[in-house]
Amino acid sequence: MLQVEATALPEVRIITPKRFGDHRGFFSETYSRQAFAEAGITLDFVQDNHSLSAAVGTLRGLHFQAPPFAQDKLIRVPRGRILDVAVDIRASSPHFGKFVAVELSAENWRQMLVPVGFAHGFVTLEPDTEVIYKVSAPYAPEHDRGLAYDDPAIGIDWGLPAEWLTLSDKDRRHPRLAELPRYFA
């Protein structure tokens, strides 16, 4: 009951669960270990995270955790709309430094699977946007890392004017790709 789509980065996939609706609303199985395994995706998620961003232009990222606490992520949007971005930071990858950007929303019901070795971030495109994501390793502050959201070598177009973007101080200080240690060699 899943639609799985490839992206320009083969390891990053778009997953759309079926949604069944009637006059009462809808029902959707947003994650099933069995359905994912049948689609060839075998991950062991250990934690769910939920964020709310009040303003359009809230940019969170680009984040990842270094080994041994590296995380696969499965991101979805139950309310609102985001531009979701994954950047390949695996030094030996033919796609090193390349990214994919996909709109996820409550309306399109898409999810993005971001594997270990990718930095992840998103920007909100609607007010009061909620993002829920599963991770395959627990949060480990000592392994929490980031990549500059505005690195010109990567060239992400976040879809909004720069003056609309709201970031944490921490997210403004992440290194550029050329300065990033090779955590995923």
Describe, in plain words, how this protein is organized in 3D.
It is a single chain. This protein is mainly beta. It is built from two helices and 13 strands, in the order ββββαβββββββββα. It holds the Pfam family dTDP_sugar_isom.
Indicate the overall shape.
globular
Compute the separation of the termini in Å. Answer: 35 Å
Number of strands: 13
Low-confidence stretches: none
Number of helices: 2
Radius of gyration: 16 Å
Estimate the mean pLDDT confidence: 97
- Main sheet: which strands, in order across? 1-2-10-7-12-5
The largest β sheet comes out as:
6 strands, antiparallel
Report the helical percentage.
under 10%
Percent range for β-strand residues: 35-45%
Structural class: mainly beta
> Which series of helices and strands comes N to C?
EEEEHEEEEEEEEEH
EC number: 5.1.3.13
Subunit structure: Homodimer.
Catalytic activity: dTDP-4-dehydro-6-deoxy-alpha-D-glucose = dTDP-4-dehydro-beta-L-rhamnose
Pfam families: dTDP_sugar_isom
Which features would summarize this protein structure in a list?
185 residues, five-stranded antiparallel beta sheet, six-stranded antiparallel beta sheet, mainly beta, 2 helices
Write the layout of secondary structure elements.
Elements: E1 2-6, E2 13-17, E3 20-22, E4 25-27, H1 33-38, E5 47-53, E6 59-65, E7 73-79, E8 81-88, E9 99-105, E10 111-114, E11 118-124, E12 129-135, E13 144-146, H2 169-172
Antiparallel strand pairs: 1-2, 2-10, 3-4, 5-12, 6-11, 6-13, 7-10, 7-12, 8-9, 8-11
Provide a quick synopsis of the model.
With 185 residues, the chain is mostly beta strands.
